[in-house]
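assembly run, all chains below
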Amino acid sequence: MKGKAIVITSGKGGVGKTTTTANLGTALAMLDKKVCLIDADIGLRNLDVVLGLENRIVYDLIDVVEENCRLEQAMIKDKRNPNLFLLPAAQTRDKDAVSEEQMKSLINELKEKMDYILVDSPAGIEQGFRNAIAGVDLGLIVATPEVSSVRDADRIIGLLEAEGLNDPQLLINRLRRDMVGRGDMMNIDDIVEILAIEILGVIPEDENIVISTNKGEPIVLKDKAYSGKAFNNIAKRLEGQDIPLMTIEKESLFNKVKRIVGLS
Amino acid sequence: MSDDKAESRGEGSKNIAKERLQFILVQDRIKLSPQQMEEMKAELLDVIKKYIDVDDNDIEMDISREEEMMAMIANFPLKKRD
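ok done. output:
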């Protein structure tokens, strides 16, 4: 097996990297792919919590690179999907506890066992970010439709390309169709035009994400959630399926009426 | 474009966001602060003035981007002959 390693990154914090990693990983596992998620945010781990696996951690990423345990011992199997694994970050160490070389060899080892390795990058452009991009094949940049987020995304695109990670793809998170509709939020075309990169998917703003994070259950497990469908579509696109972007910019009159009377 | 102008044209705030972003990204990409930009303009003008008479009032210098490419476009109108 020769898996594909993807880093989920953004520069700016709080745009949804961890939520994206958890949901995209779960969605790929639901497509019968073997997936390992790596939390590269050393000292500020959170991917375990979003997946509801916080009580199962025995070993972490640092234990693996310091050879306190075998890789398999540190990989936590997801409680819902046997194809999904989590390699948690260490919570009590700092980001210098792991090097780029160590991350590279870890990723290469995982590529032999997995179809996909998704690396949840820390915010910022310091050493933690460099560790997160070591050894990966594709950069996936998460941005929300805000000036600060798009600016930082542009910076990250430049840094990825400087590291030889060309042609990163964009994921727009928290798009609000009502605000786009009245011209108070940049739309998909605006952001793609500014950043000049390929778009992989768009996730609408959805309060169900907060609820799913509260419970530690990824939103993709919910059939009806709009945002969950968006993540499932992104997973299918990664698998090479031709799925058009959801038409979340133009709301149908029927849906608008439903929303106004509070049915959806 | 100011907020007021956009609002009086009945546009939402997204166009303001877009214009500000395009300006910010050019600065980020060439790593040149607005002050340095002004200094460069002044120096360039001095050099050009050594050789030709230009009309100070109508000089335009801007960095713009089209798709992947960025270019600095400068316009130095020559002084009309008296």
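The mean pLDDT of chain A is 92.

The first helix of chain A runs from residue 17 to 30.

not gonna interpret more than that til we talk
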